[in-house]
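fyi for ur records
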Amino acid sequence: MPEPYAQQNADIHKPTDIYSLVQCIRFTFKIRKSELFGIFTAANDVIEDDMHLQRLPDGDFIVVKPDGASPIRYPMARTIKFPPHPKAYTSGQFNYVEKEGKKPYAYAIAELIDNSLWGTRNNDSRIIELRIAIEPTGKSYLAVLDNGSGMSTKTVLEWATLALSPEDRDRPPASDQEQNTSQFLNSRISKFGVGSKQAGYFIGRSIRMVTKKQHHPVVNQLEIDMDELEERAKRKQEVYEDTVISRPVGEWDKAEMDNQFLKGLCEFEKEHASFTITLISKLNLKYLLYDDSPNDSEAIKRAGLSLLRKLAHTYYFYLHGPDTAMQHLAPPTSNRLTAGLGASSSSSFVPVNMSIACYKMSGNEIVAELVNEEIESDRLNYEAKMIANSCASFAFKAEVAGRGTVAGILRYFPYNGVSETVPDSRADEAEYISDEETETDQEPSESAQQRNGKKKSKGKEKRTPSASRAKGTGRKELTNGDALAAADGGPVSRSSNSNGSQEEANAEVLDSEDMKLFECFYQGRLVPFTEVKKISFIKPTANNLPQLRRLRGSLFFDDSFQINREKLEFTDDVAAALMNEKNLRY
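which gave:
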């Protein structure tokens, strides 16, 4: 019995009519005119006229079967090649390891979440889950799951191709409406086509992409193992080649279904009409736990809470919406400043429902659920404190000549008669973890095990802002020598330099480590290692310098500003751009 042309794969451009498709297939697979064949979709539906052809989604695959061949049998494997795009050799250096002292693990995970933000951008309900399972003596896993639009075979190939940017994939540019979204919360964060791969191989050694588009009958799955790629290179074999598996929903490898963590991912797959699961295995635990042992449940919990804190800060406005930035907002006192962060999008903006779960495993069994939290429930991150503690704020927007738009918020934090209320970002993580009650090494209840693979209930109790404040506000106790003033009843102290001018003393304070005036966001997402200490409309003087140290704010940059490939910092000198009055228009 003749079979499909199973071992022959080819990329063809979708023609406009069925006749052209037939001729293209005959030419590509060298099929004689006397040979009859059928053309079928992945669901085994026949493609027999122009109408059927036009219904076929771009990027989908078709199956060509000789006349009389048996139906398609799943799973079906197709070999794909994904040689690096030429930009891979020219687009900069991978630098997560260079940031090791600043613990960049959360920001590597953020690269995966950025993709999920794009995938869920059109959803009425946006679900993104981070799950981590640590098995001290065996395989450990990290997975990012979303209910986004999923990927076709073509899109999976584009994902696998290193340095293939969104522009190279023919992604349309942002519309005016997207660019005018308040704080640029348009989910267009992915930029270079390298982030999820480089971040993924910083996190672990193997990446598996599992995805399905809505109304598509099969799941597409591709796993790229770095150890295998390196072994092929040593043997002088084809390196950038692997197999995309197309299979029915929920049909994972039987051996994997013995693993409780992987079984939970399979359950997520069954629950959503479209989805993407990025599963990383062979985790590099050094960067997650650092010097702690993977046997230490306390260490795993601390790592999970650290990720919770950083991700809650990184995606604060995607989690809570643009209106949260406008709390305590007051009009500007200068007519040179334009109030507002861009067009209001609160009516159409859909906040992201993001969660994190960390498990300890023994063999294939989950033995402890150490963290299971909605990320938006964190009310102690730096951004939340900024909004909650400030007594007055105003918004502004500036056009940088030859570059783009910067929106911003500036907030004032008063002395309350006892302590300063300026949030201290450096104390956040240690404070949060020490405040948490630790309950580890408990046998998970049946309901806890069932939750692995299901969305947590909306009725989950959350911290209230008042409770969060009582727990810790990040306020700094005054010490001798603080250059804090005056106007709102705080202790008076003059910053001066006995060996120089008052201007030199002003500059010294403005350049000091604790003078973190603005944190920076790119397309609404935190850029963690870029800070701006000065801006053109704030002029330090001997009289106002103490109060300046009670100011903090946020700057929101659109995608016309350049960031590095890992989105850890801007490559543009944004601080200098905001100090050059000649190039600014407020």
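The first strand starts at residue 37 and ends at 40. thats all i got for now
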